[in-house]
Design goal:
The chain has eleven helices and twelve strands. By secondary structure, the chain is α/β, with parallel strands linked by helices. The protein has two domains: 253 residues, Rossmann fold (3-Layer(aba) Sandwich); 102 residues, Rna Polymerase Sigma Factor, Chain: A, CATH 1.10.1740.110. The strands form three sheets. The chain has an eight-stranded mixed sheet, sandwiched between helices. It has a two-stranded antiparallel sheet with strand order 2-3. A hairpin with a 5-residue loop joins β2 and β3. α1 crosses α2, α3 runs antiparallel to α7 and α4 packs across α6. The longest helix has 16 residues.
């Protein structure tokens, strides 16, 4: 599989939904496979909150396999011998695209809290400009899970002639209070950490020791990404063997897992990026900017494919089902499948075998 990692630099202003302007800006992206002669074999993949443009394989100089490597590649469901796959790092994220810790041009000081609030619609608009700069005006499909699924649906509404298929997994048409409440834990944990310094920390300040506030907030995220059954299966009531049961801070294995994973995460993910992306997730609603949800979806011309997971406790299957029924009631092409899974929200990342045939069928 041919992999290419690039950055696109834009000097023209990006007009944001908030009314603010971002210029200049950079979008990091990665491509897989080869573009055909008439640019008709393109699939756009959109990442979730903590994801990046590295969706598959191993890019040059990287030891880390892409987050959807089970789905994307030669001979896989998203077959890179047939399709040219693009995945971008969304604006605001900290893996190469313009973000809060980027230089606030023309100065060489980071934006920090001067960075504009972004929305899912802004992220999608920037990706559309990237596609146009590459001479790509028609897509075979847009595929994404979680926040990536939100982006896919936003593309369907804002750019109705762009993609033949929209595949949204483990997502919703608007973020509900339950998910916003989980995100609130992370927001406050970061803000209240003294080392966060109201966003005035130095670049790479947490590479060695991480930020405790982000690690604590990420624990809440991890809980929402899993399910009770998956936790019971993985950890049960196992206790850390060298921790005393009657030590006050002795730990169960599930506690140690949360500590280890979230501490590592807080070393490489920028806390301001986390806050800005969470804000974009919280504000997501396909209806905003339109008089009603019916008006918003009336713009859709793509075939919509919705996939939920039965044990998803972040974006519940009922949300996807209700949106599917709304699409059908308004004569918009839509399919819906609730995948039976005990894994929870993150099933879209780790149980690809349960929906890859569905993706293959859609692309055929």
């Amino acid at each position: 599989m041919k992999i290419s990692t690039k950055q696109a630099h834009f000097s023209s202003p990006l007009y944001l939904e908030s009314g603010r302007i971002l210029e200049p800006y950079t979008i990091a992206y990665e491509t897989y496979g080869e573009l055909n002669s008439d640019n008709s074999n393109v699939i756009l993949v959109c990442h979730a909150l903590s994801g990046s443009h590295q969706a598959a394989g191993k890019a040059d100089g990287s030891n880390k396999v892409g987050w959807w490597d089970d789905l994307i590649g030669d001979g896989k469901a998203v077959d890179t011998t047939k399709y040219f796959v693009i995945c971008t790092n969304v604006l605001g994220s900290c893996f190469g695209s313009t973000c809060p810790m980027s230089d606030n041009y023309p100065s060489h000081q980071p934006f920090r809290l001067k960075f504009p609030v972004l929305t899912i619609k802004d992220m999608v608009k920037a990706q559309m400009l990237l596609l146009s700069s590459l001479g790509i005006y028609k897509l075979k499909a847009i595929i994404g899970g979680s926040m990536g699924g939100m982006q896919a649906l936003q593309f369907a509404v804002e750019y109705p002639n762009l993609s033949e298929h929209i595949v949204s997994l483990a997502a919703t048409d608007e973020t509900r209070a339950w998910a916003i409440a989980f995100n609130k834990v992370a927001i406050e944990a970061i803000r209240q950490d003294p080392r966060f310094q109201d966003g005035n920390y130095e670049k790479d300040a947490f590479l060695e020791n991480g930020l405790s506030g982000l690690a604590i907030g990420r624990i809440a995220g991890h809980i929402s990404y899993l399910s009770p059954k998956s936790m019971d299966k993985k950890f049960a009531r196992d206790y850390v063997s060298n921790d005393g049961l009657f030590e006050l801070f002795g730990r169960y294995e599930v506690e140690r897992y949360m500590e280890y994973n979230t501490a590592n995460f807080s070393k490489y993910f920028d806390p301001l990026s986390y806050l800005y992306i969470v804000k974009a997730i919280n504000t997501f609603s396909l209806q905003r900017g339109y008089d009603s949800k019916e008006e918003a979806i009336s713009r859709i011309k793509s075939d919509i494919h919705l996939i939920s997971f039965s044990s998803d406790y972040l974006f519940f299957p009922s949300e996807m089902k209700e949106f599917h029924e709304l699409l059908i009631a308004n004569n918009i092409s839509s399919t819906y499948e609730d995948v039976q899974s005990d894994y929870g929200h993150d099933a879209f990342l780790v149980e690809v075998n349960k929906f890859e045939d569905k993706i293959r069928t859609i692309l055929k």
